[in-house]
Amino acid sequence: MSVSELFNIQGRKAAVTGAGRGIGKALALALSEAGCDVAIIDINMDDARTVAAEIEKTGRRGLALEADVTKVAEIKKAFDDIQSEFGRLDICVNNAGICINEAAEETPEDHYDRVVDTNLKGVFLCCQEAAGIMIPRKRGSIINTASMSGTITNFPQKHAHYNASKAGVILLSKSLAVEWAPYGIRVNTISPGYVKTELTGAAKDLWPQWEPLIPMKRLAEPKELVGAVIYLASDASSYTTGSDIIVDGGYTAR
């Protein structure tokens, strides 16, 4: 098989959660440009429809689905709709997540629950539903968005619950990779560093403190995560499962 064939995902069916904005949007558009039909799952239906319309312009199908990843019934319906509309699911990128910056001793229970439920429970629920579609076909690639914060502690902001949730995503993914390997399903994570999105834009006053700590001295653009995802989605990574690909400009290598 040639290199171009290894990376070819033309005609595959994909789903991306949290794809209405930021990293999820960039990944959804990249998958469509690579030839995939893509389901856009987002809590904001207007954003989902906007991205789905952009996908349609690439000549692929964009399916806008509204769902809160922490709600079992909503996620089940979204994946049922994917099964009904696409007939199968080859690639699932679980990207939806939130972050709240606050000191651990001041973190209220509802903030802790919101962060962990969205970032960790939401990934688990979506993995369950994706696997339910993939297992009968004995193939599929699940890619979960973790973070370099699952490996290190950020500075100067404090968000212990966020760090814990992302560390959980990494080990959850490794566990699922082992459990589902007999079904031909690969489960991996990408761990971005600081990326220019709406989420980090809300903390732009911290950028001057972050940049000196990054060996490459800048934040990433969302498109700089695309290569890792296309690799994990394609047959080029057929022997890669349970892995975490860190894309952080060298931050965790310091």
Short description:
The chain has 254 residues and is of the alpha/beta class. It has nine helices and seven strands; from the N terminus they run αβαβαβαβαβαβαααβ.
Protein described:
The chain has a seven-stranded parallel β-sheet, with helices on both faces. It contains nine helices and seven strands, in the order αβαβαβαβαβαβαααβ. The protein has helices spanning 3-6, 22-33, 45-56, 72-86, 109-134, 160-180, 198-201, 207-210, 226-233; strands at 13-17, 37-42, 62-66, 91-94, 140-145, 185-192, 244-247. Strand 5, helix 6 and strand 6 form a beta-alpha-beta unit. It has one domain: Rossmann fold (3-Layer(aba) Sandwich), CATH 3.40.50.720. The protein is an alpha/beta fold.
> Class in CATH?
Alpha Beta
Overall shape: globular
Give the biggest beta sheet.
7 strands, parallel
Cα end-to-end separation: 38 Å
Number of helices: 9
Rg estimate, integer Å: 17 Å
Strand order of the largest sheet: 3-2-1-4-5-6-7
Q: What percent of residues are in strands? A: 5-15%
The CATH topology comes to: Rossmann fold
